[in-house]
Write a structure and sequence with these properties.
Domain PHP: 6-221
GO biological process, one term: L-histidine biosynthetic process
Distance between the termini: 21 Å
Number of helices: 9
Strand content: 15-25%
Order of helices and strands: EHEHHEHEEEHHEHEHEH
GO molecular function: histidinol-phosphatase activity
Family: Belongs to the PHP hydrolase family. HisK subfamily.
CATH class: Alpha Beta
EC number: 3.1.3.15
Number of domains: 1
CATH superfamily: Metal-dependent hydrolases
CATH topology: TIM Barrel
Length: 280
């Protein structure tokens, strides 16, 4: 690896994050020796995307704030010129059936945006759309009860990732699929997903990423989540991506300045083939 890069980070425009200024994140990135730092904030969602209005207000910035976020990030990019390559981006939600909404969000900023992390955070569930990563109780009540088994829910999740790859392939900026194992965030509290299903689906996704020339977010946030305890990209998957020429990009998914760089040692060891076999 020649470029030390954090490719998935957030800012004060994240309403489930932290009010710290981007300078606090970027200064920590500089101190840790990062060369590139991609700012990938959650963009607005369609009105009423989920039924819980309080939660909806925390998931993404209002549409009126998107221009302000772009100005803020581009201003910081200039501030750090010569010190840190700060890249302006978004973490785009894949919104099945509402791709035109996402296209409309991106269109005014195509000349500015350098990165798009395309993530699946939502599945259709009981009477509407639900987050796969809100709480274990919410998942159990509104998704597990709807699909019947974790395997069926996981299959739908991976179906959505495959659709997101097809959508992301049309984007002009650097693009990668976000945290492909987010469905396992509550692995220690929910029934298990068949490991063979996960392996089969992720192996198919590697081939699709390679064909579409789309990278993957090796997201370490799961390592700091008590209900998870593992990264959202397994070691064997990282190795297969490398073998097939898929770009693997470390992502701290930082929502607080102190999270910048978290789990980079896992990423580096996985990429260099230094992770013990039992970690696969």
């Amino acid at each position: 690896m020649t470029l030390k890069w954090d490719g998935h980070t957030h800012t004060k425009f994240c309403y489930h994050g932290n009010p710290a200024e981007l300078t606090e994140y970027a200064d920590r990135a500089v101190a840790l020796g990062f060369d590139r730092y991609s700012v990938t904030e959650h963009p607005p969602l369609p009105d009423g995307w989920i039924r819980d209005e309080k939660l909806m207000a925390e998931l993404a910035m209002p549409r009126s704030e998107l221009p302000e976020y772009i100005r803020y990030a581009t201003g910081m990019k200039k501030k750090y010129e010569g010190t840190l390559e700060l890249a302006v981006g978004l973490e785009m939600d894949y919104l099945d059936g509402h791709e035109s909404f996402s296209d409309g969000i991106l269109e005014p900023y195509l000349d500015v945006l350098e990165d798009a992390v395309v993530s699946v955070h939502y599945l259709a569930g009981r009477d509407g759309m639900y987050c796969v990563d809100f709480t274990a109780d919410d998942f159990r009540a509104n998704l597990l009860s709807y699909y019947g088994t974790m395997d069926r829910a996981a299959d739908e999740y991976f179906d959505q990732i495959e659709k997101s790859i097809a959508w992301a392939a049309k984007l002009p900026m650097r693009r990668r699929i976000g945290h492909p194992l987010l469905i396992t965030k509550f692995a220690r509290e929910l029934p298990p997903i068949d490991p063979a299903l996960i392996r089969r689906r992720l192996e198919r996704i590697v081939g699709q990423l390679a064909k579409a020339r789309i990278g993957v977010d090796v997201n370490t946030a799961g390592l700091r989540v008590p209900t998870c305890g593992h990264a959202y990209a397994p070691v064997w998957f990282i190795r297969q991506c490398l073998e097939q020429g898929v770009e693997v990009v470390y992502g701290s998914d930082s929502h607080k300045p102190e999270q910048v760089g978290f789990g980079y040692d896992y990423f580096q060891a996985a990429v260099e083939g230094k992770v013990p076999d039992e970690a696969d």
